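Input (structure):
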């Protein structure tokens, strides 16, 4: 019963003996219902949409997981960075052989190989660079596995 209907009923019954306490309780309930309706309707609307909302975010998570997996896979498995340590070790052997041969001949190895100094610089930093790369990869894997279950190719 709306508030207006209730007030009409009270006015109609004024001349008769009526238990107004019961009607005051009813008026209070009507007010409570009307004031709580907005929250009820809002919470119902959000709860009704909740499944779609969560599925949209699950799709976003799955899309990100796929994108992350492809990016990491391409960079680590198909890229050269993961094999850097092997390349550095192979080059060290060759540079050591070159250094020994150049010393026997009494010439400077940098006159024989155009990128000699760059190669030496790379090799001097190789262990640190490789360690940092592998640690960064492990950090991404750990975070991604905790959150998404990313495949570990190491």
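Output (sequence):
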């Amino acid at each position: 019963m709306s508030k207006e209907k209730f007030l009409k009923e009270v006015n109609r019954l004024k001349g008769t003996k009526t238990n107004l306490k019961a009607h005051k309780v009813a008026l209070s309930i009507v007010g409570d219902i009307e004031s709580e309706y907005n929250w009820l309707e809002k919470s119902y609307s959000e709860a009704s949409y909740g499944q779609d909302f969560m599925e949209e975010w699950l799709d976003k998570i799955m899309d990100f997981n796929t994108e992350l997996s492809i990016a990491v896979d391409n960079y680590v498995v198909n890229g050269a960075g993961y094999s850097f340590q092997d390349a550095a070790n192979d080059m060290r052997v060759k540079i050591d052989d070159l250094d020994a041969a150049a010393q026997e001949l009494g010439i400077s190895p940098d006159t024989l190989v155009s990128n000699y100094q760059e190669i030496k610089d790379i090799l001097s930093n190789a262990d640190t660079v490789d360690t940092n790369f592998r640690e960064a990869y492990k950090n991404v894997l750990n975070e991604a596995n905790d959150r998404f279950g990313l495949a570990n190719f190491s």
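Notes: Residues 80-154 form one domain. The two ends are 71 Å apart (CA to CA).
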